[in-house]
Amino acid sequence: MVLLFNLGVLDLVQLFCYYVMLYCTLLWLLVLFKNRANFSKETGIKIKKYPSITFLVPAYNEEKHIKKYLTSILNLDYPKDKLKVICINDGSTDKTLEICKSIKDTRLKIIDKPNTGKADSLNYALNFVDTEYIVSMDADSYPEKDYLKNILPYFNKKDVAAVTPALKVKETKTLMQKIQWVEYVFSIYLRKIFAFFDCQYVLPGPGSICKTEIIREVGGWDKESLVEDTELAFKLHVKGYRMENSPKAYVNTEAPETFRDLFKQRIRWYRGYLQTNRKYFYMIFNMKYGNLGFFVLPVNFIWIFILGVLFFLPIYNFAINLNEFFYRYSLVGFTWPTLNMSFDIIYIDFYIYFLALFFSLTLSIIYLSIKISSEKINLKTRKWHYMGYIFIYPLLYSIFWFSAIFCEIFKLKKKW
Questions:
Q1: Nearest Cα to 168, choosing from 147, 193, 194?
Q2: CA 344 – CA 381 distance, rounded (Å)
Q3: In the predicted model, is pLDDT for residue 213 greater than 60?
Q4: Which pick of 58, 189, 244, 379 has the fewest CB atoms within 10 Å?
Q5: β-pairing, 141-143 with 209-211?
Q6: Does the pTM exceed 0.85?
Q7: How far apart are CA 349 and CA 330, in angstroms?
Q8: What does the pLDDT read at residue 343?
Q9: Sheet order of strands, 133-136 included
């Protein structure tokens, strides 16, 4: 208590940030622990019936990947008469259309249309769907062979309108991809917890599966949204539908290789998230929308505040110390710093404690994420993956969010 009275306003703000971080981290761990029996039971469920499914694959200038990824869908471990694929060539200027036409399979339908964007392409293709389920699949992603058998059993639960997959980064050639590999593995852990907590707010473009009738009921995908997959999830929540998650329905995706490409992707994602929250502002702090509205959406904005504090506070402290150094130099000239024996050792230990605590929790959660995603730690070849995620990713995450907020406040125009 005495220590608290000795702390300044910035110290108290920092402690508040630590409290929220610790609370959320422990909450998600408790949710996972409480549902551990359900988790084990779910992963062992076998598919009993094989409903009809259509994969929608919008493609714009995807000549590099499109044949491989369409073929992987057509070769899924699933009855051939129950599986269809619609590839929408969205005004590509390369050989995407020509390559698609070279694939000879009666289950593949090709639509050629002018470039109007992903959401509009999905809505257009929706007119040709006559199956019970729809899977949206990006042209740079592909599901593993048993993807459908691992994701469909979740529709046995009541009021489930959609199920999200487990996304993994396919290749990790660059440092940016290595960091994203850990980020995506962590997302598998977090998305499953959000499913238990009934608060998923994104239906990832690669691999999310939905009931066709419900997609039509909510009006399909919003072509004005930067993040049509997030906007669709919000619409389903508003209608009272549930979204489940399958941590074993793996979908491999191409991750941005460079900082520039990653920056462009994340600005779109985060600006889109902000715009979607503005559109559905009435959900925030509204108990009608359960854990998503009353807890997760408000806490997400607190997390943005925390990013600001943890990013700018060290800069502020450095500037203050630098100013003090130059002030003392102007008075007495340069002197080597001396150890101040009266400095509060307890005060130092207080922040070292939090640093050690959060570092330990980070390692523990990465370990859990690796286990849940059926990966191996493989420290010898992935040490830079983990080091990059722990020491570089927080800085990148902050830069992306602040840039997105800046762009959104000043309404900067950008063609995605």
A1: 147
A2: 42
A3: yes
A4: 379
A5: unpaired
A6: yes
A7: 33
A8: 46
A9: 108-113, 83-90, 53-59, 133-136, 209-211, 160-169, 242-253, 141-143
